Amino acid sequence: MPSPPPSTGADRPPGWIYLLLPLLHFASVKLTFFCAVTPENEAVVWLPNAVLLAALLRYQGQRAWAMAALTFSSDVWATTSAFALGTAALLSLVNLAEVLLAYGLMRRMQVSRGLQRFRDFGIFIAAGPITAALLAALVASVVLQQLGTTTTPYPTLVRLWWFGDALGLLIYTPLLLSVSGPLQSPPTRTTLLDAVVVLLGLALAGLVFTAKGGEVGGVSVTPDLLLPLVLYLAVRFGVRWTALAVALISLATAWVLTTGQQPFGAVDVHLEIVRAQEFIFTLCTVGIGCAILMAELKTHERQLEDKVRERTQALEASNAQLAALSATDGLTGIANRRRFDEALASEWSRATRSGQPLALVMLDVDFFKAYNDHYGHLAGDDCLRHIAQMLAGQLHRSSDLVARYGGEEFVLLAPVRDTADARRIAETARQALAALALPHAQSPWGTVTASLGVAVHVPAVGETAELLVQQADLALYQAKARGRNQTVLHHTDSA
User: Fold this and answer.
1) Domain range spanning residue 376?
2) What is the SS3 string spanning 72-93?
3) Residue 264: which residues within 8 A CB-CB, separation 6 or more?
4) How far apart (Å, rounded) are the C-alpha atoms in residues 175 and 288?
5) I need a labelling partner for 482 at 20 to 30 A (CA). Which of 80, 261, 268, 377 fits?
6) ∠ CA 364-367-370 to the nearest 5 degrees?
7) Element (H, E) at 361
8) Could you give phi then psi for residue 297, rounded to 5 degrees?
9) What would you report as the CA-atom Rg of the chain, rounded to the nearest whole angstrom?
10) Both 344 and 210 in a single domain?
11) Of 307, 324, 348, which residue is a domain's last?
12) Which residues pair with 29 in a beta bridge?
């Protein structure tokens, strides 16, 4: 058996598993023999092999040989009640080889430990119920016939052993894995419809097993009528409850056969076992297969929803980033002309409704062309960045905005109480620029200065925001005309 890779991520088997595993295996052997149909202990379903296979899959082969030794000993001990010690040991060895072969093939094909995927379920069927169980049936039938413990013809014996082992693996391995795994979402509150369907299904099961493969009220009744119930459980409740239902139906079928009931018709006992196995196989493959497929589809749906959600969030973040970039001046990092136009329109509309004065300050760097000619354009860019950072530091309200209007021009937009408040904002900015003391050899003041035009207006219905821009621009022109490095308020002559 191949050793598992170190990065399986499987849980380490707890200490109690080494006590539970042989006890569960022993009990399953006894239960199988209890439900044996013939005096030669021919059973419909062989349960024990599924116990070891589920444990190997659950823990990904960790301490595999310890588990194998425990279950082998348990198998021999339990089987001695039906066979001689030597025969029991040989048959137990065949069972062990079957499980190890199935597990080895599944590990080679990288089957998940919980059989969560429909692909894994298909590989499991091919490796265990088909390949390993068939080889075990071929060998075990030879052993039984050579030891003289059976009179059943070899082909019939192979068929019974094969399907008995296959059904045991097929039913109880998924059941044990689902029970040992994390809780899924079986109903915490069963709906009225669910309760009605399950009750009707149980009533149908009772009717089926007492009809003896005949007719009830002129209606043909066969065990295959339980298939819709199993399909409903698969779609509604998932793998765990479907596997449990199939397991209980298989045990009920085996027990009914031991009591002399003939739900599959009055036929030879071997043919009766074959029909029971075919019936259980149909329920198992369709029911559990459908449940696994539905679970996988739901998982894919959740994964798709998660991807859509992640991509939506990423798209929203990208859009927000693009929106921020589209509203930001690339050189200075403050708002650009586009953002200013949007803010002006919004604040103008708000001021129109509230009647609050709106102020616009336009700032133009004095002798900036001479600055660029003397210091170079890179130094000019640095100068503009310093001014932008200074202006941004002057605003403390979310409603205020500083933006680069174009070239060496900046604007400050702010709701104000009155013209004095607007002039104070402008003068504070002009004095803060003077405090930076950025050298300017081509300026009469020796440092970088600015001219500022201020406009204050209470918008009226029918007026547009361009009016405020025109007023601030006119005041800026007046500031330059009066000698620069000063603030001019629209319609005033004072600086």
Assistant:
1) 337-489
2) HHHHHHHHCCCCCHHHHHHHHH
3) 213, 222, 223, 272, 275, 276, 279
4) 9
5) 377
6) 140
7) strand 358-365
8) -65, -40
9) 43
10) no
11) 307
12) none
Q: Which of 372, 367, 492 is nearest to 426 (CA)?
A: 492
Task: Give the Cα separation of 285 and 281 in Å (integer).
Answer: 6
**How far apart are the C-alpha atoms of 351 and 456, rounded to whole Å?**
11
- Domain assignment present for residue 162? The answer is yes
- Res. 29 pLDDT band, cuts 50 70 90: confident
Positions annotated as catalytic residues are 408
pLDDT for the residue numbered 403:
94
CA-CA distance, 159 to 140, in Å (whole number)?
Answer: 11
Nearby residues of 275 by Cβ (< 8 Å), 6 or more positions away: 264, 265, 267
Task: Tell me how far apart the alpha carbons of residues 180 and 64 are, in angstroms, rounded to a whole number.
Answer: 17
Determine the Cα–Cα distance for residues 118 and 126; give it in Å rounded to an integer. 13
* 7 belongs to a structural domain: no
- How far apart are the two ends of the chain, measured CA to CA in Å? 95
Cα(404)–Cα(338) distance, integer angstroms = 10
Instruction: Show the 3-state SS of 46-71.
Output: CCHHHHHHHHHHHCCCCCHHHHHHHH
Q: How confident is the model at residue 3 (pLDDT cuts 50, 70, 90)?
A: very low
Regarding whether 401 and 354 lie in a shared domain, the answer is yes
Statement to judge: residues 405 and 279 lie in one domain: no
Same structural domain for residues 294 and 354? Answer: no
Q: What is the pLDDT of residues 111-157, one digit of tens each?
A: 877 777 778 888 888 998 899 999 999 999 898 888 877 788 888 88
| CA 344 – CA 355 distance, rounded (Å) | 15
CATH number of the domain within which 358 lies: 3.30.70.270
Please report how the helices 154-180 and 118-125 are oriented relative to each other, as an axis angle in degrees rounded to 10: 150
| CB-based contact 131:111 (threshold 8 Å) | no
Q: In the beta sheet, which residues pair with residue 455?
A: 360
CB 282 within 8 A of CB 107: no
Domain membership of residue 319 (yes or no) is no
The answer to whether residue 445 sits within a structural domain is yes
Are both 141 and 276 inside the same structural domain? Answer: yes
Sign, CA torsion 255/259/260/261: negative
The reported pLDDT for the residue numbered 81 is 81
Which residues in 173-184 are b (16+ Cβ under 10 Å) and which e? Answer: bbbbbbebeeee
